[in-house]
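Schema walkthrough. Field components (list of strings):
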Amino acid sequence: MALARQYAGGANGNRSLERGIEILRAFRPGVDTLGNGEIAERTGLPRSTVSRLTKTLVAFGMLDEVRTERTYRLAAAVLSLGHAVRMGSPVLKVLGPLMRAESTRRRLNVGLATADRAMMVYLESIRYNPRPTLRSIVAGQQVPMELTSLGRAYLAGLSDGERDRLLVKFRRRNAAATKTLIAEVQKSIRSVRRDGYCAVSWQPGVLAVATPIVIQGLPVYALNMSVQDIEPTEALGAEIGSYLVAFAARCKGALSGP
Amino acid sequence: MALARQYAGGANGNRSLERGIEILRAFRPGVDTLGNGEIAERTGLPRSTVSRLTKTLVAFGMLDEVRTERTYRLAAAVLSLGHAVRMGSPVLKVLGPLMRAESTRRRLNVGLATADRAMMVYLESIRYNPRPTLRSIVAGQQVPMELTSLGRAYLAGLSDGERDRLLVKFRRRNAAATKTLIAEVQKSIRSVRRDGYCAVSWQPGVLAVATPIVIQGLPVYALNMSVQDIEPTEALGAEIGSYLVAFAARCKGALSGP
DNA sequence: GAGTAAATTTCACTTAGTGGAAACGAGGGC
DNA sequence: GCCCTCGTTTCCACTAAGTGAAATTTACTC
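Field assembly_structure (string):
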C-alpha cells in the first residue's frame, strides 16, 4: 500500500528487502495461503515484482509453494526463527518460570507481550485451567493494542512521542468509534499511572488486567493477568490488579538482579 | 558465506532480499544477539551493506536494536510470523488434536516436523509427562536431519534427487565420521522402506521412532514418537514402531478425508 | 583527555532491480 | 475436445537503487 509508488521510504533503507518483508507480513492467521496476484493487490506492488520476490522467498525457505493452487504459504524456517525469538529473549528467560508459578498459584492466566506496529504480540501466554491437561502456552498470537489491557499498559510505558504516533494509527483503523475509543485508551493510561495497572474487558466474560514493564535499552513489555467466565466487576479488577502489581515488582527485581 | 562474492545465486532472485533473510537466519538459539560486525563476519557480507540492511530490518520490525551494546536481536514480529505458520498449516490443524490424544493414550512424546535446509523443524512436539502439569508443547525447535529418526524418515519420503542433494550437505557438515554416518542414514532409510518406520537413539536414554508423511503438493512431513529414561532396545523400537505406523495410517486418512 | 577500534555515512559507479509488454499456461464454458 | 479468457511468468531496455571503499563520526579504553 504505502510502499507502492515512488518509494516514499525516503531516507536509506533497502527497498527490495522492505518489499520482501511486507510480502511475508501479508500472511497472518486467517490468511493462510496467498497467490502472487493477491499479494500484489494487498501490498500494492507490481505483479512482476511480486513474482520475483516470492521466488526468492521460496528459494530461501521463507515460503512454501503450493503448486496445485499456484499459491504460497509461510514455510517452516519462519517458525524456527520464531522459536529463536523466544529462546533469545532474556526477559522471557527470566519471567517465564515466574509466570508459570504465578499462574498456578493464583489460578489465572498470565501473559507477557510486546508490540509489533499497532498490535500486541504474546511472547508467552499461560492459560490457566483447573484441569492440568488443558493448560496451555501460546506464543506469537496478536491482539489489537488499543482494545486490550495489554496494549494500553504498553502505551502507558511508552514515551509521549511514540505513543502519539500510535494513537494516530488507531484513529485510522477504527474510524467510526474513534472519539470514545481514544478517551477509553486515555482513561486506561491514567489508570496505569495512578494504580499501576489497567483493567479492560475486551472479550465478553473475560477480565484482563495489565501493567507495563519498562527496562532501559529494551522494548517496552506488558504483563497481564486474566480470568474467564466471571462477571467483570471493579472490585475483581482491583483484586487482580493488586496481585499483578506485586508480581510485576518481583519481576522487575528478577530482571535487574543478576 | 556462499553469498559473498559475485552473486553466485545466478538466475533470477533478489539479492538484497536474499541477504536480508540470511541476516535473519544468522540468529538462532544460542546466537541471541549479534552486532553488525559479527553479522558481516558470519554472512560474508561487506560491513556497510550489513549496516544498511539491519537498519531496514529494524524499521520493518524484524530486528530490535539493543542500543546499549550496539547489537541486534530478533523482534516480536518474527514470533508472530512463526505463529502464523502454525495457524496456517492445514496438516497441523488436522494432526494436532490427533497427536495430543495419541500422546496421552500411549504415554509417549509425539512430534510432527518438516525440513528447513538440513535441519528438521518441529511444527509440534508434544512432550508426555506423567504429571500433567509438566506436559508441554514446543514448536520451531530444530534438530539435525541426519542424526535423528525424524530427519531420516523425512529423507526416506523425498525423491532421489532431493535426498542426494542433502546427503552432500551432511558430508560437508560432519567431515569426520562421514562414512559410518552415511551408512547409518542409508540403513534407516531402508528400515523405513521395509517396516514403515526407523528407530534412532540420538540422545542417550531417548528412543525415537519416525515415519514420513508424503502428501501430493505439500512438503514432506515426518511424524515421530519417543520415550525417555528407558533402555533403547530393538524390541521396544518395534513396539513403538507398530503404534506409529498405525497412527500414521490414521493421520493419512484424516488428511485425505474432508 | 588523547588514542584506538568499530560502526556509520558519504560518494561516485554501475550493476542489479524495475515494470510494461509479450508469451505462456491453466481452467472453464460451449 | 477445442477455444477463449484470466492470471502468471518471462523478456527487455532503462535507470534508479544498491553497492563497497574510504572518510567520518561515535563509543570505549587506558
